[in-house]
Amino acid sequence: KLVPVLSVSPSWLSPGASVTLSCEVQPQSAGWRFFWYKAVPELSVRSYSFELLPNITSRTEQNSYIVQGQTHTAGYVCRAGRGEPVDYTGYSEPKFVWSADLHPAASLSVSPDRVQHFSSDSVSLSCGGKSAEWRVWRSTETDPLSVCSIWGNMNRSTCTINPYWFHSGVYWCESGSGEFSNAVNITVQ
């Protein structure tokens, strides 16, 4: 199956700003209709479920869609379809719009609390909010989406990073109730 590529702009959010989602199918050809989804964390399967974005009853003919008034970190997915009955592509990989909002429903805190770290640092990422279950994800230049259990040790609501696998990137928490925390951009020297 064809798998489209989703891009988001901007990737860092000013609360209340508009976000543009663009979905591209390769090779390009006419007749595609595009479907837009929100990615909702599913902790039990280390994946996401997909919910059609509200106010879209079926599809858009254009390969872009604008989300108005985005305030918190969110994940998005697209897919395309054409013909009758509709022949769908696969789902794109999730793409995220990150918010540095310091008062989201779920939160991420870094210890020690600084933006720049050294690769030998012992660093813990703690999730806060009304949830009994958490997972911590990161996105780096070489690995766009990976979970704490691969590069650290998750213990309840805290991920302790293995210094060998500590890389610059964006880190965030996801709760068992489907919420995203603020995101933190960490630089590792």
Automatic annotation (TrEMBL):
The UniProt record lists the keyword Acyltransferase: no
Domain named Ig-like: residues: 4-80
Protein's recorded name: Ig-like domain-containing protein
Keyword 4Fe-4S appears in the UniProt entry: no
InterPro entries registered for this protein in UniProt: Ig-like_dom, Ig-like_dom_sf, Ig-like_fold, Ig_Fc_receptor
Organism of this sequence: Characodon lateralis
Keywords on record: Disulfide bond, Signal
